[in-house]
Each structure stands twice: as C-alpha cells, then as structure tokens.
Amino acid sequence: KLVSREFKNEDTVLDIGGVLVGGSHLTVMAGPCAVESREQLLESARIVKEAGAQFLRGGAYKPRTSPYSFQGLEEKGLEMLAEARTVTGLKIVTEVVDIQSVPVVSAYADVLQIGARNMQNFQLLKAVGKSGMPVLLKRGIAATINEWLHAAEYVMSEGNYNVMFCERGIRTFEDYTRNTLDLSAVAALKNLSHLPVIVDPSHGTGLWKLVRPMARAAVAGGADGLMIEVHPNPAEALSDGNQSLTPKNFQEMMREVGAVAAAV
Ligand code: PEP
Ligand code: MN
C-alpha cells in the first residue's frame, strides 16, 4: 500500500508553500475552533503567529453535534482566513465537510482538514484526493489504526500523496475527558507509515488544563506537529471554549514544546 513503510521507507516531508511538515520539523497549527468574526480571527492569528506557530486553524464549516449550535460562517469565514494569511503569512488549515465545498475550500486554504466524523466518508476522501490539495486526516471517533491507514490510502490512491495524520482522541468508557488521546497511535503510525503525524490534544482531552501536558507528551513521543485550539477569550468562544488555551497558556506551551523537541 502507498501509505506503508514497505512502499516508501523514508519519512515523507510535505512542503506546504515553503512550510515543511514531517522529518525533523515541529509544525504547530493553532487558532480558534471556529471562525467567529473578522476581529476574533485576526486577533487569534496575531497571537499564534507571535508565539511561533506556522499554521492558523479555524473552522468555517463546523460539524456540530446539535443542529442548533453555531454552524460556522462558511465562505465568509474562508475569506477571513485568507485575509489572516495575507496579514500574518501563516498557512491555513480548515475543514471541508462535503464534496460540494471541496473547490471553494481549496480556493482559500493551504491544507484541507478531514474531520473525525468524515474519516470514512469515502466519496469525500476520493474528492480531496482528486483535488491534489494537502490533506490533514483526523482519526475517526471510533476508528482503528488499520481503518485510518485505509482512509489515507483512499486519498493517496487518487494520486495525492500530500497526506498527514492527526490523532484527536477516540471514544472509550472514560468520560472525564471528552476523548481518550491515543498517543500510542503516534508510535504505531510512525512504524507503519512514512506520512507525518500531528496530535490534537485539544479535542483529544476536551480540557484546557490537560492540553499543555499532552502537547509535551506528544512531542516527546515523536509527533511531527500539534494542532491546538487557542482563543483570545475562551470563556466567550462559540465552540470548544473549555478546551481552548488562552494566549498566555499558548505562549507557555510553545516554550515548553520547543524545549521538549530540542531534548529528544
Ligand atoms: C476541529 O478540529 O475543529 C474538529 C471538529 O475536530 P474533530 O473532527 O477532530 O472533532
Ligand atoms: Mn473544536
């Protein structure tokens, strides 16, 4: 299989407009759960850029559990992301939730995010494969590593080798945390596949207090990068405020993971 170490032994390093993901680079993708307003997004972008991240994250199409929750600003949100890229130079990673919006999201983003809920949406995987855009493939909420590898294979089988995995926690019996962050998946994937592996301790734990320690652990365990939710004012966030870091906590996290990366 294309995803496997048997097909390609050396680590894949993605070049996303000059930003390298994989190899010895630690890539940080950070920003709010959702794009809420121009002010909120530009402020978030300024914060994550200043702290040293390479990517701005933020959902314009939000896959919410309830249809009555904030659903995202859609194309208006994509425009704001593109403006934030112009202002800061950050690359943009944002979720695409269906086949119809692959072209519009591709027009604004640098990386297409496939959310956990869509990891086995095979038609969508084929569509992002055909788009040729770099893809961040989140782990399904109850997906095995084998199923996740096959999902990446769907993208690659369309000729698109620009794929990275993102561990974001899985559902277990534990309900103190939102999900159970499976850091063993990082080492497992690094053994099985040549593709980069990103860890998202924000969705992985659901609790901002656990994000910094799990970010440190992810880097110590061989992750190629982190995806982190940061909000200028988490208490006011329209989604995932409980797991979002304040600007100050994010700065501290960046300092800590820099030290861990230098030590391992
Ligand atoms: C997100 O990153 O905003 C998100 C919805 O994550 P997940 O698909 O992992 O739940
Ligand atoms: Mn979120």
Read across the widest sheet, the strand sequence of neighbours is 3-4-5-6-7-8-9-10
Under CATH, the homologous superfamily reads Aldolase class I
Order of helices and strands: EEEHEHEHEHEHEHEHHEH
The proportion of strand residues reads 15-25%
Mean pLDDT, rounded to whole units?
98
Structural class: alpha/beta
Listed once per kind, the bound small molecules are: phosphoenolpyruvate, manganese (II) ion
Q: Oligomeric state of the chains?
A: single chain
Instruction: Write down the CATH class.
Output: Alpha Beta
Annotated CATH topology? TIM Barrel
Task: Explain what you see.
- The chain has helices at residues 38-51, 75-88, 102-108, 122-131, 145-156, 184-192, 201-205, 208-220, 247-263, and strands at residues 14-16, 19-21, 27-31, 55-57, 91-95, 111-114, 135-138, 163-167, 197-199, 225-229.
- By secondary structure, the chain is of the alpha/beta class.
- Strand 8, helix 6 and strand 9 (197-199) form a beta-alpha-beta unit.
- The mean pLDDT is 98.
- The chain is globular and about 45 Å long.
- An 8-stranded parallel barrel has the order 3-4-5-6-7-8-9-10, surrounded by 7 helices. Strands 1-2 form a two-stranded antiparallel ribbon.
- The chain has a single domain, classed as Aldolase class I (TIM Barrel, Alpha-Beta Barrel), CATH 3.20.20.
- The protein contains 9 helices and 10 strands.
- Bound molecules: phosphoenolpyruvate (PEP) and manganese (II) ion (MN).
- Phosphoenolpyruvate binds at residues 33, 59, 63, 115-117, 138, 168, 203.
